[in-house]
Specification:
51% helix; 6 helices; elongated; alpha/beta; disordered C terminus; five-stranded parallel beta sheet
Length: 171
């Protein structure tokens, strides 16, 4: 990111000095170097299955912005972890099938989507995922109880309170 900004600054400096052709060459090189590296939206649920509302929101946003999506279930380790992994994988597949029937009557949007279930410490795994994946532009955090959204990440975090939305749907 710093290199990219430095390259943009160099191109701006060339243009300011009256050399627009060199500035355009630098920007063209930058465009080819970063071509194919799409930004990503990371949607995360801790110890619960991903709900329809945040998944639908993430897919719609990714479709409009042409971002890829990664959906994560993070469960605490322990004896019940293997069972939880199977449940979350099956639950996400069923949710995705339901959403695809409702959202994409024609062709599916040009969005890559992936789902993974990770076991371990929630905060550490989320930081590590953002670091290793690269290009994460936004984290959508599915919450089921009031909790702070500050996770000390270097990307914006949007908390999607599924408990609140289900209460509103019932009233």
């Amino acid at each position: 990111m710093i290199r990219k900004l430095g390259t943009i600054a160099a191109a701006a400096g060339m243009a300011e000095q009256g050399d627009p052709d060199s500035a355009l060459e630098i920007l063209a090189e930058l465009g080819t170097r970063y071509q194919g590296k799409r930004r990503k939206i990371l949607t995360v649920a801790r110890d619960v299955s991903l709900a329809g509302e945040p998944v639908e929101y993430a897919l719609g946003l990714a479709s409009r912005l042409r971002y890829d999506t990664l959906f994560l279930n993070i469960v605490a380790g322990g004896k019940a972890a293997n069972k939880a992994v199977r449940q979350h994988k099956a639950g996400f597949q069923a949710l995705l099938k339901d959403l695809s029937n409702r959202l994409w009557s024609g062709s599916a949007p040009d969005v890559l989507l992936h789902h993974a279930v990770l076991c371990g410490d929630y905060r550490l795994l989320l930081k590590e995922a953002c670091h290793r994946i690269g290009g994460v532009a936004l984290v959508i955090l599915q919450t089921t109880r009031p909790e702070p959204c500050s996770l000390d990440l270097h990307v914006p975090v949007f908390c999607f309170d599924t408990a609140q939305s289900s209460k509103q749907a019932r009233s």
